[in-house]
């Protein structure tokens, strides 16, 4: 049987990833929003900032991830 979750599949995917992160003990998770960009989860692990963008559909271009990297790669003090 095949299910069509429509516009909800992104919410299901993000919730799944969040539950997995929590199960690994990563309890301090934040999000990031730019003008037209959003990173679902931003983690800090051993002093490193790790952005996580969740995709649920066929379009897997990570435009928000690229915007985040472009903004913060020039200066780590911006975070």
User: SSE order in H/E notation?
Assistant: HEEEH
Class of secondary structure makeup: alpha+beta
Largest pleated sheet: 3 strands, antiparallel
Q: How big is the Rg?
A: 14 Å
- Ranges with pLDDT <50 over ≥5 residues? none
Question: What is the helix content?
Answer: 25-40%
Q: Compute the number of structural domains.
A: 1
User: Which descriptor suits the 3D outline?
Assistant: flat
How much beta, percentage-wise? 15-25%
Strand order of the largest sheet: 1-2-3
The whole-number mean of residue pLDDT values reads 84
Helix count, DSSP H or I runs of 4 or more residues: 2
Distance between the termini: 45 Å
Q: Would you report the number of β strands?
A: 3
Q: Please, could you describe this protein's structure?
A:
With 79 residues, the protein is α+β, with helices and mostly antiparallel strands. The chain has one domain. It has two helices and three strands, in the order αβββα. The chain has a three-stranded antiparallel beta sheet. The model has no long low-confidence stretch (mean pLDDT 84).
Quickly list its features:
about 80 residues; alpha+beta; three-stranded antiparallel β-sheet; 2 helices; 3 strands; flat
Provide a compact summary of the structure.
The chain is α+β, with helices and mostly antiparallel strands and 79 residues long. It contains 2 helices and 3 strands; from the N terminus they run H-E-E-E-H.
């Amino acid at each position: 049987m095949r299910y069509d979750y429509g516009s909800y599949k992104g919410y299901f995917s993000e919730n799944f990833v969040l539950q997995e992160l929590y199960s690994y003990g990563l309890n301090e998770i934040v999000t990031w929003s730019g003008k037209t960009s959003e990173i679902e989860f931003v983690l800090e692990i051993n002093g490193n900032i790790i952005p996580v963008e969740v995709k649920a559909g066929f379009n897997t271009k990570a435009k928000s991830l690229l915007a985040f990297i472009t903004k913060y790669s020039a200066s780590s003090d911006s975070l």
